[in-house]
Amino acid sequence: MMMAAAGPPSSSGFLPLLESLEDSAAGQSEQTDAYLTIANRLSGEEGRQFLPAVEKHFSRLGKVTLAHISSSNVELSQAALQALGFCVYHSRVVSAGPETFATEILSTLCSLVVKSTDKNTCTRALWVISKQSFSPDVVGKKVPAILGTLESVWSREDIQSVVMEHEALNVVIRMLEQVPGQMGEGAVRWAKLVIPLVVHSASKVRLRAAAAMELGMPLLLEKQMEVAAIIEPMMSSKLIPELQKLFMSKNETNVLKLWPLFVKLLGKLLHRGGPFINSLLHLEELGFRSSSPTIKKIAFIAWKSLIDNFALNPDILCSAKRMKLLMQPLASIHVRTEALLLTKVEVWWYLVVQLGPNLSPNFDQVSVPLLQCTIGSDSSSVPVTASRPVSQNGASTPSTPKTPFSTSANTSLMSLNSSVHVPSTFPSIQLLGLEMLLHYFLGAEVIATAAKNKLILSLEPLNHSLLSGASSFTKHAAVLTSSIRDGFTNVGKEAPDSLLAVIWRNLVQFVNLTIESGSKKDRQGCEVLTLMLQALQSIVTSEALPAHKVLILLEATVKGIPHRVLGSASYQVGKMDVLNGTPALFLILLLYDSSLLTAYIEDERFFQCLQMLVGCGLSGPTSPLAFGEAVLGAMGRSAGFPTEQGAAVEDVERDGQPTDRHHHTV
């Protein structure tokens, strides 16, 4: 091309090109070459040097370009559009001209798209609009006209092409970025154009439409009811059948990423039920059934949008039918990889948080299986419906286990046909289970407590506390206590000391609160204390925790439970044949019967707790002699017990007060 070598990349190189374009006597081929040269220089390495000249003379260049883009010579028109696109892409160039000129350029481009019979010319004009950097004030005023232009693109079957549709979507995305306010006002208009294209046969169009839909989602949600009314008829007739075809043709990821967008847009329409909703749920079911962990993960993440949707109305979220639906994939889909299990647990916890003040009545159905899934509880040790008030004998009241995936006649519930598996356990997931217990006990206070104890939280805090007092604790005491027991046994060795300490201290505090708030005839205080001490017994006898962590729990128990309770036979636990048994004696025997005794006695806390427990036992209403004999008998049975501590017990028996001995010779 002759003009390609005209002058250096500077004003001296640009002016001859501009003069050629302004010369009415110049041939169209020469002018076409001039435009292509300008475009090449602006888009190439010379662009930075060439730009100032274009910026300085843009008013002249723009005027002649507007005339040429409407030329009947297709090559000249498209070359002019290409040069114009690279010019208006630079904000420095367009800012050099008046706003009226920018408005004129946009109007001319829109007119060209509507009237031109050449699809390449229309496509290039759309490309210019998608690349322009005009003032938002100018573009905002032209949004209605631009949307009208886009509507004409899809109504003109004579010139439609995949490339043209792709560029039209780029225009929508550019408008969303540039003038979101005005695009919000026209949301219904562009939604009609964009949403059907997410199932386009061409991949590049589908992906661009999905990008536009996602980018414009906040604006669509502002007019959610109007947009939902447009989408609903499309769902059964076009969108869902096409999405199912796409899923079956190896486009699972794209389909599952679109799924939450439709759920958000449909909003409360989903609460009414209906055939298309069943079909929509079937898409998710296909994702959950996939053998690919990646597809399963995307399906779980998409499930959060349905949780959000039902949470729009707490009555809907907490209805038995909807809760069963939400729980189906969470509780029934067995995952084998740590990463996928983590995703599932995060989504499950999201449901727990969204329940807000309705967590307690849904605790059995939602939180109990979650604790089992994370901590790895033995299914025989924690009933499916374990979160019940303890009975008069201190055990959980028996009931028929609820299978969360029983067949329902309601067709809106997915039928995954998956049996309930005991999940694979990983320490990272088990530690999350311990953190959940922390959230259940502390509620909104968890952030301050975690900071104070230098704990890093991985889960979103609860908006509403599960436990508000003795009655709410009593209701959930059995499952919380057994979960602590299993969590400490399974992963306590790897958990931070401070995490174990905070969880156990809070358990002790609620046990104490229950004891103090009840009357003498009320057995709940006794029952929750029994649950806690039996849990401690299981933890100690399992020898899963090192000695120093056991002593953390012992110290919190001895300091947190009133001494009158520790020394009272009314709270007897353990073997019933122990005469005058008390919690104090139970704890002493528990430690002295442990094979870790030699490790315990190396820690000062052991002796401090022992002295407090001995003092509680001897000062209580039971026989001091029988208590002392039982303690000394335990010491005698333990190989190498500290003789001076035996003497301390004798001193306490004689004087009624613990001695202050600090030499722990074995």
UniProtKB/TrEMBL annotation:
The keyword Protease does not apply. SUPFAM superfamilies: ARM repeat (SSF48371). Keywords: Cell cycle, Chromosome, Nucleus, Telomere. Residues 378-395 have a biased composition (Polar residues). Residues 378-406, 645-666 are annotated as: Disordered. InterPro entries: ARM-like, ARM-type_fold, Rif1_N. Residues 28-366 form the Telomere-associated protein Rif1 N-terminal domain. It is found in: Chromosome, Telomere; Nucleus. Residues 396-406 have a biased composition (Low complexity). Pfam families: Rif1_N (PF12231). GO terms for cellular component: chromosome, telomeric repeat region; nucleus. GO terms for biological process: telomere maintenance. The keyword ATP-binding does not apply. PANTHER family: TELOMERE-ASSOCIATED PROTEIN RIF1 (PTHR22928). This is Telomere-associated protein RIF1. It comes from Larimichthys crocea (Large yellow croaker). The lineage of its organism: Eukaryota, Metazoa, Chordata, Craniata, Vertebrata.
